[in-house]
């Protein structure tokens, strides 16, 4: 607790060994008590040698008694600072109020001589935890390219200790975003799930106003800034419209306790939310479904070097296709990623959904001044005939990637197959002129491979990329020579 300083009167001292010094809690205003286990506080000041080293407690621990030693009455302007006393038994919340009174007239004294200049507020607690129905399942693995008012994420909020909670700001986190921009998520709203089934039903109230969506690259937020009051433990569900639901697009949704701003309705004190919960995961791709906890790094769930893959197609040495010679900057989430450089029956692998692996240093030799298209070849397979694989490209060292959602068109097989992504005229969702020669130097260019397993292990044996380029007015392929 904070220290308490008692200063004797400047002209008429009244703190004596006969009556001692008492500090009482105004229990009619503040429902708490002194903690009697802390009975040896620290004393300082000019009167520190005039009191006993231990204190006692009276009135059901509502009063602490500081024993003034015999013959050691305080003199004018004596100062005693007490540190190391604590409170407990906080039973009822209250707003900030002066709570401590000093009594100098002995055990029978009932008239306060002074009160503490500080105030004490007792506040409740607030916690987040998982929704009773479990987290929402993948809503984006659909045949169309949009969803309307779908339940995307849920959670529970629980006020405790007898105080309603005014939530003033709640920010839902978006992460692992691929293929979505701010305008693709519209009309987000929170509703109270009164029957705890994870779905919106007639009569269930919305709270927090309409959320504000903001997406920047692979992360984003949905902010609800209209106040609402949590009066009891309730389940809540987020629903929204989502457009541009294309193959390979994905996002994870979560709520960190630090992203909830709230005050106690009675105490008027800011509350720190405790707890944690799992997030939801939504993606559109073939042959997989997902889930996970927002804010954590994907972890391998098995031995990704095991499994059976039979020999199949070989990537070859088609002129203009270049292989990488470095990996892992900045994304490095596959096992043995350098085994994906060349076709040699040693494999880069993953068994974790939506893991990203970056490849670089392709040593392109681009002679034209116009980029016409980009083509990626992956020699890939899986230990069972499920799962998929995709790729995106970066022109700025992996800081930003394309969001074109290019993936293999079929499930992987147990034999190596050459999957060609992009084409001589495919700019991977960017506008003509966005790609320049410098985009493909060894410093800037990255190929990001995205693993989309479906309860299995997927493998890459070899990778090659070709840049189709031309001199303005004279089309050509000029990808950088043979391999």
Describe the structure.
It is a single chain. The radius of gyration is 34 Å and the shape is elongated. The model is unreliable at 286-309 and 474-483 (pLDDT under 50). 0% of the residues lie in helices and 41% in strands. It folds into three domains: 4-122, no CATH class; 127-283, Immunoglobulin-like; 326-470, Jelly Rolls (Sandwich). By secondary structure, it is an all-beta fold. The strands form eight sheets. Strands 15, 18, 19, 20, 22, 23, 24 and 26 form an eight-stranded antiparallel sheet that branches. Strands 17-16-21-14-13-25 form a six-stranded mixed sheet, with no helix packed on it. The protein has a five-stranded antiparallel sheet with strand order 5-6-2-10-11, with no helix packed on it.
Highlighted features:
Jelly Rolls; mainly beta; disordered C terminus; Immunoglobulin-like; six-stranded mixed beta sheet; 3 domains; 483 residues; 35 strands; 0% helix; eight-stranded antiparallel beta sheet; elongated
């Amino acid at each position: 607790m904070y220290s308490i300083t008692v200063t004797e009167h400047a002209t008429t001292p009244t703190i004596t060994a006969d009556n001692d010094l008492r500090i009482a809690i105004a229990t009619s205003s503040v429902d708490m008590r002194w903690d009697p286990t802390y009975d040896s506080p620290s004393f300082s000041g000019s009167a520190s040698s005039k009191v006993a080293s231990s204190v006692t407690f009276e009135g059901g621990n509502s009063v602490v008694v500081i024993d003034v030693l015999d013959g050691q009455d305080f003199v004018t302007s004596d100062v005693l600072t007490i540190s190391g006393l604590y409170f407990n038994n906080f039973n009822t919340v209250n707003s900030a109020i002066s709570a401590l009174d000093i009594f100098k007239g002995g055990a029978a004294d009932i008239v306060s001589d002074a009160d503490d200049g500080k105030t004490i507020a007792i506040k409740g607690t607030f916690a987040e935890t998982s929704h009773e129905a479990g987290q929402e399942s993948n809503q984006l693995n659909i045949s169309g390219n949009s969803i309307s008012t779908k339940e995307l994420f849920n959670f529970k909020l629980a006020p405790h200790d007898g105080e309603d909670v005014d939530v003033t700001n709640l920010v839902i986190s978006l992460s692992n975003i691929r293929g979505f921009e701010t305008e693709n998520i519209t009309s987000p709203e929170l509703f109270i799930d009164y029957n705890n089934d994870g779905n919106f039903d007639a009569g269930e109230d919305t709270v927090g106003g309409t959320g504000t969506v903001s997406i920047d690259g692979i992360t984003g937020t949905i902010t609800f800034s209209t106040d609402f009051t949590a009066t009891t433990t309730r389940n809540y569900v987020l629903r929204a419209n989502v457009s541009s639901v294309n193959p390979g697009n994905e996002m994870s949704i979560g709520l960190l306790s630090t992203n909830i701003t709230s005050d106690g309705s009675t105490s008027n004190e800011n509350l720190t939310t405790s707890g944690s919960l799992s997030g939801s995961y939504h993606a559109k791709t073939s042959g997989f479904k997902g889930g996970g906890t927002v804010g954590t790094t994907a972890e391998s769930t098995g031995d990704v070097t095991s499994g059976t893959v039979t020999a199949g197609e070989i990537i070859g040495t088609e002129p203009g296709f270049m292989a990488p010679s470095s990996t892992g900057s900045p994304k490095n989430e596959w096992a043995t990623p350098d085994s994906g450089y060349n076709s040699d029956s040693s494999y880069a692998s993953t068994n974790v959904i939506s893991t990203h692996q970056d490849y670089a240093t392709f040593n392109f030799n681009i002679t034209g001044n116009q980029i016409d298209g980009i083509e990626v070849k992956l020699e890939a397979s899986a230990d069972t005939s499920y799962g998929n694989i995709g790729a995106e490209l970066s022109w700025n060292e992996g800081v930003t990637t394309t969001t074109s959602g290019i993936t293999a068109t079929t499930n992987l097989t147990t034999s190596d197959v050459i999957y060609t992504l992009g084409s001589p005229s495919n700019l991977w969702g960017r506008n003509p002129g966005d790609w320049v020669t410098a985009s493909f130097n060894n410093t800037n260019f990255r190929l990001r491979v995205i693993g989309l397993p479906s309860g299995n292990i997927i493998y890459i044996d070899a990778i090659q990329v070709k840049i189709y380029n031309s001199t303005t007015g004279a089309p050509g392929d000029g990808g950088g020579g043979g391999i």
